[in-house]
Structures are given as structure tokens and as C-alpha cells.
Amino acid sequence: EVQLVESGGGLVQPGGSLRLSCATSGFTFDDYAMAWVRQAPGKGLDWVSTISWTAGNTYYAESMKGRFTISRDNAENTLYLQMNSLKSDDTAVYYCTRVNYYTHDYWGQGAQVTVSS
Predict the structure, then answer these.
(1) Cα-based distances in Å from 80 to 4, 90, 113
(2) For the chain, how big is the Rg over CA atoms in Å?
(3) Are 74 and 55 in contact (CB under 8 A)?
(4) 3-state secondary structure 82-95
(5) For the segment 23-49, what is each residue's pLDDT rounded down to a tens digit?
(6) Beta-carbon contacts of residue 35 (< 8 Å; ≥ 6 apart)
(7) How remote is the C-alpha of 16 from its chain's centroid?
């Protein structure tokens, strides 16, 4: 059974940092690209970032470039998202996803990130 479990969310002040983790199991982690997708309150899903299976290539939505860093530890089957210089607009539920032929075929349960003073 494929499982994706996010952790590391919480409340942070504007300008602060958080690091999300996504522990995975049930599949060969380094066979797949992985991604983060978020959903702000009352809004649709927004793609945040994708990392290739070797971690050799990373991609970011324009508003996250320079602030967010995606990474992965293939030995630990874990995906990460380091978020710096957080803004109130970054408040959302952040989902870890598995990428399979350009589709997000498995999703975690989500981690709430709230940026507020």
C-alpha cells in the first residue's frame, strides 16, 4: 500500500521558516519524481514544486522561487520542502504527491501551514 505522510506544518510568523517532511512507503521511492501541491483556504490546488527521481532536476512555481527548496533523501524514502521568507499568502494545506507520467497519482493527508503574526 502506497503511503505518503506529511509532517512539520504549524504556525509561523511572516518572514519565518518551516521545513515540511513527507515520509513514504509502499513503493520504490527513487523510481518516481515527487512534488508538493498546496491549497489555500477557499481556493483551488496550486502546484508548488517538483523534484526528479534522482534529485538532479527541481522545478518551482514562480512565486516560490528563491524562497522554497525541494529536496529528497532516497535512502530514507523521504521528501522535504524548506520554506523561507514565508508570507501570509503561503497559508495553505501542503500535500506531498507522487508523480507518475505527469499525473499526481498518490497524495498525502496534508500538512497545515499558517503564516500569521
Answers:
(1) 12, 16, 14
(2) 13
(3) yes
(4) EECCCCHHHCEEEE
(5) 999 999 999 999 999 999 999 999 999
(6) 47, 48, 49, 50, 51, 96, 97, 98, 99, 104
(7) 17
Nearest to 83 by CA among 108, 92, 54: 92
Paired residues of 8 in beta bridges:
none
Write down the mean pLDDT value for the chain: 96
Amino acid in position 105 = D
pLDDT-derived band at 21 (thresholds 50, 70, 90) equals: very high
CA distance 10 to 32: 28
**SS3 call for 38:** strand
User: Which residues have a Cβ under 8 Å from the Cβ of 65 and sit 6 or more positions away?
Assistant: none
Residue 32, classified by CB atoms within 10 Å of its CB into exposed (0-12), middle (13-18) or buried (19+), is buried
Cα separation, 5 vs 13, whole angstroms = 24
